[in-house]
Amino acid sequence: MKLSDPSVALSVEQRIAHIVTTIKAEEQRLRAKYSILQYQDWIGFAIMLLSLGGMIGGGYLYYTDVIPAWFCIVSAAVFASLSHELEHDLIHRQYFRKNKFMHNLMMLVVWVMRPNTVSPWYRRGMHFLHHKVSGTEKDLEERLVGNGIAYGFLMRYLVMFDGLLGMLARRTALKKDITNFSALEVINAAFPLAILYFGGWYVFLLFHGYDAIWGAATVYPEWFMQSMNIVDFLVVVLIAPNFIRSASLNFVTSAMHYYGGVNNLIQQTQILKPWFFAPLHLFCFNFGSTHAIHHFVVGQPFYIRQMVAKAAHKVMVENGVKFNDLGTFFNANRWEHA
Question: Which residues 6+ apart lie within 8 Å of 227 measured at CB?
Fold first, then answer.
């Protein structure tokens, strides 16, 4: 169904209102059916402890040679994807709204679990701006992960897979379009965790790249190899999992958000869940399927979005939200390409 279809009597505003009403009604039905959902703060806290415990436990099992590196990396990436959903909910104050200590404690923990990001306190302002200007050149949050850049251009992949280098490479274009944009300000907001993360990642890649080529002819100091053992361990338990998590998330979110030709909520996002996206969704907690729901009803924790998804998808598609629009990969995410 297209918004331009003359047979459709509802206005865009009416369609949006109908989508919102249907999603909220389904949420209320579920909350009435499952009384445990009233404990929203503690559900969020329990999920945080589960994901944190999963990452720490996996790291310990890897350290003691119980599980291989690949299994530790994959499991940690899945647990880290939960922490991203929690951070997003915390940005919208879904947990411990009236308890600053608990709220900020959760914000800190989920940041530590995802150290390749800016601080969640800084991201809150960036994310609120995203909701106001989604789909336009002012949407810093999505542009920082590649939204609107043509896929045939190498820059798209740099931005999606390396947030630091991508931002530095794009800083001139971002400064031109976004009032008061400052690359230094974003770097400061990422300090110290993201700086340590990218520093460790680059050292790991450079050393092992050098070692693969010239290692046989090189004698490394003992202190250096001991330091690299620490870096290697951190790559397995934290750095590589978050590279996979963020790469999957950035690929999905930059594709399911539109850029250009966006004039209303219906045009901001699509539902993007083709079967072959399953590996990506494993590491970004089904983001392409459920995030569009959030644009219509902001005040829902992520697990509620999962629960209402079936009813939400039906009403969204019936009222003009695109579904599995793979054309977005060929037209730099513009809404009106189809």
Answer: none
CA–CA distance, 235 with 251 (Å, rounded to integer) = 21
Kindly write down the DSSP assignment for every residue of 141-153, as one continuous string.
HHHTTTTTS-TTS
Instruction: Judge whether 3 lies within some domain.
Output: no
Range of the domain at 227: 12-337
Q: Give the per-residue pLDDT at 153.
A: 85
Between CA 333 and CA 261 the distance in angstroms is 10
Residue entry with tokens 């729901």: 293
> Could you give the CA distance from residue 238 to residue 298 in angstroms, rounded to a whole number?
30
Structural domain contains residue 4: no
Q: What is the pLDDT of residues 70-101, one digit of tens each?
A: 999 999 999 999 999 999 999 999 999 999 99
Task: Give tens-digit pLDDT for 33-53.
Answer: 999 999 999 999 999 999 999
Q: Indicate whether 332 belongs to any domain.
A: yes
